[in-house]
Amino acid sequence: MVYTNLTLKAKWQADLDERLKRALTTFAPPTKLKVSEWAEKYRIMNREETSKPGPWKNSTVPYLEKIMDAFNDDYIEFIAFIKAAQTGGTEAALNMTGYTIDQDPSRMMYVLPDEDTAKNFSTERLQKFLRCCSCLDHKFFDGDSKDTMLKFRGGFLILGSAQSPTKLSSWPIKRVIMDEVDKYPRWSGREASPLKLAEERTKTWPGRKIFLLSTPTLRTGNIMQAYDSSDVRYRYQVPCPFCGEFQTLEWKQVKFNSDDDLTIIQFNTYYECRFCGGHILDHHKPDMLIKGRWVAENAVLGKPKRVGFAINSLYSPWVSFGQMSTEFMRSKDDPKQLMNFVNSWLGEAWENKAAAMDIDVVLQRRTEIPMNMVPSWALILTGGVDCQQGYFYWSIRAWGTQMTSQLVAYGKAMTYEDITEIMDKFWPDEEGELRWQVNLYAIDSGYDTENVYQHCFENSDVAIPVKGSSNQMIARYKITALEKKEKQLIPQLLYILDTDQYKNMIAARLAKPIGKGSWMLNADTDEEYAEQITAEQRIIMDKGGRQIETWQKKTSAKQNHYLDTEVYSAFAADMLHVRNLEEEPVNETPYQPQKPAQEEAEYTPELPDLEL
């Protein structure tokens, strides 16, 4: 009997110990982790987030570890991250959010560019992420939350809009995450900037954290300003698999043959080590990333409070070097797509060196073909006319495939009859045969408007009136009727141009070397013409609370008439669909610009300074 009682007592004690152990485990404070450690322990990537669902692995994106763990550094208050496509920036922000709810609950705000984006992000990304983390099952109060107010044990998270200054300034907040900050309006009504408003909300909190992330836009954009103002700025360096030298991955080291088909380019692209010239391929990248390290660009004394990180898509484990090269080839001749490539893929600010065109650069685009002669590769001719008091400036340009163009002739005329004679004239080809006429020309109607309309009406088969828009437009031009449309009568049309877009195009094509796609001059082009082409520069100005780029005269004394005629000539080429021109199937040797003797078979993809 005694033996039995002792046995029961032992079992009772063991059961009590087990219950006590579970209770202590349940109510014990969570193990203190860093954000990267928390993500690897608790984060589960679902099928909606990735093509490879499963547990989060820091080894896949090792460059994010230091960024996420800066969130745990007691001294660091401000983190700026210039991110590129497919580099995991928003995933890092989500990990910081989940970590806060689980490990260090406090008030948070997650700011996005506008209200709709904030709501969609909350329902489609953030809430789904929180539900997938088992450690948050009894901490995230799903049922008590709304799209823009998520509640959890010990705090709450507000989804804010950069367009709503009242919300940004209403709550004292300890931690703020601001996503895609370059899409924020610069000012929110009469309030301060959204960044400043959100930062003000945190100033009374010890241990505050502000995380800014975005793909960049312009050098003056929010994320570049935040990065440049950081106490220490980091770039990620990786070792070459052949020589072991550490280096930052740069676009200029990506090599491929630009003459190949895109499919071939995608599989034949490689990265050239800038130390040993080794051909680095995609399968080398994972090991390089794991061995990589963040290296400070600048020296800093003491402990930094503001840190900046920048990375491009060459580091992405989900993007191959071949995908980068094919994306560049698709984008390089389209200004908006190229800007997107520079911003979203290279993670760089858009800086156009051609923003102020130089006379010497213009004159370097002179070919050996003399004035008044049409190149053998030409397919159409267009003209532009700038109407002034008592005279006209005019120019005629030849166009070929890939928007290759060359100035044929230019000058001044005194009357409309002179303009008609010039535009109806036959121009010789390189063989001396008079077989070319202007297919279409555009004439400015801003001055002497009624006479311009009458001239275009009388020459409607070849002349069209144009006028520059006072505002920037999405399209390059739009059409408006000069009179009401009546039955059996076709109204005369006026074409409104976004002249900035055409000037961007000219500046971009000037940046190309002589050959395919270049904007070229004839051998006899003089300095007066070049001075007028370079009379304007592109500047950044504030308009309606946002920054825009526009062209303005460098000085009021400079004349820009030939630049205007070239804008109108380019528009006339658009009307004739010059962008769709293809080579004619003739037996003659097709136009092929001669490559420099030193050019290698591999192509180093320099970014042209293209238009926006």
Quickly describe the structure.
With 612 residues, the chain is an alpha/beta fold.
Structural class: alpha/beta
Task: Give the tally of structural domains.
Answer: 3
CATH topology of the largest domain: Nucleotidyltransferase, domain 5
Write down the Rg: 31 Å
CATH classification, class level of the largest domain: Alpha Beta
Give the overall silhouette.
Answer: elongated
**Share in β-strands:** 15-25%
What's the number of helices? 18
Q: What is the helix content?
A: 25-40%
How many distinct beta strands? 27
Largest sheet: 10 strands, mixed
Average pLDDT metric: 86
* Stretches with pLDDT under 50, minimum 5 residues: 585-602, 608-612
The CATH architecture of the largest domain would be 2-Layer Sandwich
Terminal CA distance reads: 94 Å
Q: What can you see in these coordinates?
A:
The protein is an alpha/beta fold and 612 residues long. It folds into 3 domains: 167 residues, Rossmann fold (3-Layer(aba) Sandwich), CATH 3.40.50; 93 residues, no CATH class; 227 residues, Nucleotidyltransferase, domain 5, CATH 3.30.420.240. Helices cover 30% and strands 22% of the residues. The protein is built from 18 helices and 27 strands. The strands form 6 sheets. Strands 3, 4, 5, 6, 7, 8, 9, 10, 14 and 15 form a 10-stranded mixed β-sheet that branches. A hairpin with a 5-residue loop joins strand 17 and strand 18. Helix 2 packs across helix 4, helix 9 packs antiparallel against helix 11 and helix 11 runs antiparallel to helix 12. The protein is elongated and about 125 Å long. The C terminus is likely disordered.
